[in-house]
Amino acid sequence: MKSALVLGAGGFIGGHLVKHLKKEGFWVRGVDLKFHEHAETHADDFVIGDLREQDFCRSVIDRGFDEVYQLAADMGGAGYIFTGEHDADIMHNSATINLNVADIAHKRNIKRTFYSSSACMYPAYNQEDPDNPNCREESAYPAAPDSEYGWEKLFSERLFLAYNRNYGLNNRVARYHNIFGPEGTWDGGKEKAPAAICRKVAKVTSGDAIEIWGDGLQTRSFLYVDECVEGTLRLTRSDFEGPVNIGSEEMVTINQLVDIVADIAGKKIEKNHIPGPTGVRGRNSENSLIQEKLGWAPSQTLRAGLEKTYEWIEWQVRRNAA
Ligand code: NAD
Ligand code: GDD
């Protein structure tokens, strides 16, 4: 039986990845600081601990794992990474985890590892035009991410690639573009726009207004979590080390995102634009490289993913209210 280790298994994408690996018949160990808040784990073994601690890291990365997925990070949406208040923690916590994992995975001769980078590492200067952002993989340099979160991701993807070159680690790097879906953070300050908008729409009655940060004309693309997991598994098992975008090419303004969610909810929603952390003006995935290297790219519509996500968040809102 094949075995996999998922670091960050108590989080959103890690939780979905564990489920998928179990469906494939893997024996799975999950590791996190905490249990998953929104779902029972499907992992065979779930270890609570801090991956910043080298000894703990050594104790969970056993020699025999066929695949190790490194998703543990100090992360959140615009309300967490763009305020500047968490910069030192984000850089220290995530970099320490990655330094530990890369080194121990190499010393334990792990056959295949995966690291989740982010589109936040792309230079801000290529994301000023909301209609024409450039997020092609080769546009990463000269580096100029707009957040410390992005700088840490850039450092860590380089770290894993250096271990590949110098020590023969077999790591794969993906740059995720805003992943969304059920069982993700939807409240509390770390939630991203799709979950925040679903929550706000679910909480009001038709005809009411919800608050939107900025003028709503900033653009993004959002990828449904099932396709993120599929891309992650395809990349990890491929011969291509990356970095490669895993994201949707269906770019929308935040105002359009609100309109789609309102339509799914069957509510008329007014928009109250307020100042807030907005990040880059435009961002979209560019999928030529993943298509070329893996012969695959995400294809689901944003609306299809939002229908499932809204249903889940609406249920959370009702449950919490009760
Ligand atoms: P998440 O916050 O839901 O999951 C990350 C998990 O890491 C959390 O459960 C957290 O408790 C755990 N963790 C943090 N510090 C830890 C530590 N010291 N020891 C053990 N566990 C620790 O985030 P996610 O959305 O599932 O993202 C997974 C990965 O993908 C992260 O590396 C993130 O930066 C990256 N990513 C996500 C997105 C997105 O839109 N969700 C976009 C780009 C990149
Ligand atoms: N979170 C949130 N909440 N964002 C809102 C809101 C709101 O209520 N209203 C408007 N927005 C706007 C933000 O200001 C931002 O311009 C846009 O929606 C997208 O915000 P997020 O989804 O929070 O983050 P992001 O796309 O800027 O960055 C995310 O994606 C990266 C990968 O592409 C983050 O999750 C990063 O951690 C991730 O790496």
TrEMBL record:
<dbReference type="InterPro" id="IPR001509">
    <property type="entry name" value="Epimerase_deHydtase"/>
</dbReference>
<dbReference type="InterPro" id="IPR036291">
    <property type="entry name" value="NAD(P)-bd_dom_sf"/>
</dbReference>
<dbReference type="Pfam" id="PF01370">
    <property type="entry name" value="Epimerase"/>
</dbReference>
<feature type="domain" description="NAD-dependent epimerase/dehydratase">
    <location>
        <begin position="4"/>
        <end position="247"/>
    </location>
</feature>
<protein>
    <submittedName>
        <fullName>NAD-dependent epimerase/dehydratase family protein</fullName>
    </submittedName>
</protein>
<keyword id="KW-0520">NAD</keyword>
